[in-house]
Design a protein that fits this description.
This protein has about 300 residues and is of the alpha/beta class. It is built from 9 helices and 7 strands, in the order E-H-E-H-E-H-E-H-E-H-E-H-E-H-H-H. The chain has 2 domains: about 220 residues, Spore Coat Polysaccharide Biosynthesis Protein SpsA, Chain A (Alpha-Beta Complex); about 70 residues. Helix content is about 50%, strand content about 10%. Strands 3-2-1-4-6-5-7 form a 7-stranded mixed sheet, sandwiched between helices. Helix 1 packs parallel to helix 2, helix 5 runs parallel beside helix 7 and helix 7 crosses helix 8. The longest helix is centred in the C-terminal third of the chain and has 33 residues. The protein is elongated, with a radius of gyration of 24 Å.
Length: about 300
């Protein structure tokens, strides 16, 4: 669906303790959008005051509720608009690249655009440990969604407003990035554009106060929970097959040793058999749930 020549564009900026960067983010984005909504997610500094002075409309949470909750508040508060842009409040994104995000939607080539830091696969200053963690999250998100996204954790995105009803906003934390991709997959065309990133823009901002390891593990656990329902074949059947192979291999090895007289009991063989049986049960659980999921989706017309 092609957007009119002069679309109305709204930017949503979730922010938590971003007083050092929020002003420049708002001023920079103002050049390319018609309206900016900053959702102050319970900040204890001057984020809200600075955002207002910079020209943004500010919605404040009384306490910190998480990025997902902030985005939900922002999306529920937008007026009549054509395109919504989300951008983090910590200044890591280049607001000059907003036109790159909205162009595919304006041209009718996309319904949702993901700003990827890794599309061109060139070094961009991302710490190795962070990139490895993001790769795991990308792979898991892609398994759940059926997409081939290179930066599933990007907060720099553009959406045609007709996509908004598809987002459930069940997640209140940073796993919202993956959830939105999974919600949109299958119903809308999602494309990626290369964007830059600056990790040194605000070392005191909310996103930098979170431990990358705990943050990554938290998102990964949420994605695995989603996989149980979205991709039961991966969640149950693949581990089940691994258990079957393991049980079979161990069983043959132990039984061979028993026949050779190296072992005087069949107990290890029995345990290996139980592992294999557990694998069979797990694998068939995945197959059954996959079939049920397919029937449900078919009945819903998907």
């Amino acid at each position: 669906m092609e957007i009119s020549n002069l679309p109305h564009i709204t930017a949503i900026v979730p922010a938590f303790n971003e007083e050092l960067s929020i002003g420049s983010v708002v001023i920079g984005a103002n050049k390319f959008v018609d309206q900016i909504i900053v959702v102050d997610d319970g900040s204890t500094d001057y984020t809200a005051e600075i955002a207002k002075k910079a020209g943004a409309e500010v919605i404040q949470h009384s306490q910190n509720m998480g990025k997902g909750a902030a985005l939900k508040t922002g999306f529920n508060s937008i007026p009549n608009t054509d395109i919504v842009v989300t951008i983090d409040g910590d200044g890591q994104h280049n607001t000059q690249e907003i036109p790159l995000l909205i162009k595919p939607i304006e041209d009718g080539d996309a319904d949702m655009v993901n700003g990827s830091r890794y599309l061109d696969r060139k070094p961009n200053g991302t710490p190795i440990y962070r990139r490895l963690g993001q790769t795991v999250l990308d792979k898991t998100t892609n398994i759940n969604s059926g997409l081939k996204i290179t930066d599933s954790q990007s907060g720099f995105r553009a959406f045609a407003t007709y996509t908004i009803p598809s987002f459930k906003f069940n997640k209140t934390d940073f796993s919202i990035e993956s959830e939105m991709l999974m919600d949109a997959a299958g119903d809308f065309k999602i494309v990626e554009v290369q964007v830059g990133v600056s990790y040194n823009s605000n070392n005191n901002g909310g996103i930098h106060t979170k431990n990358p390891l705990s943050h990554g593990l938290s998102v990964f656990v949420k994605l695995l929970q989603d996989m149980e329902f979205r991709r039961p074949l991966y969640y149950f059947t693949v581990p089940g097959l691994i258990l079957i192979i393991t049980g079979l291999a161990l069983g043959l090895m132990f039984f061979g040793r028993y026949l050779d007289g190296q072992m005087t009991t069949l107990m290890p063989t029995i345990i290996a058999g139980m592992i294999g049986l557990g694998g069979i049960f797990t694998a068939f659980t995945g197959i059954i749930l996959h079939s049920v999921s397919g029937m449900i989706q078919q009945s819903m017309g998907k």
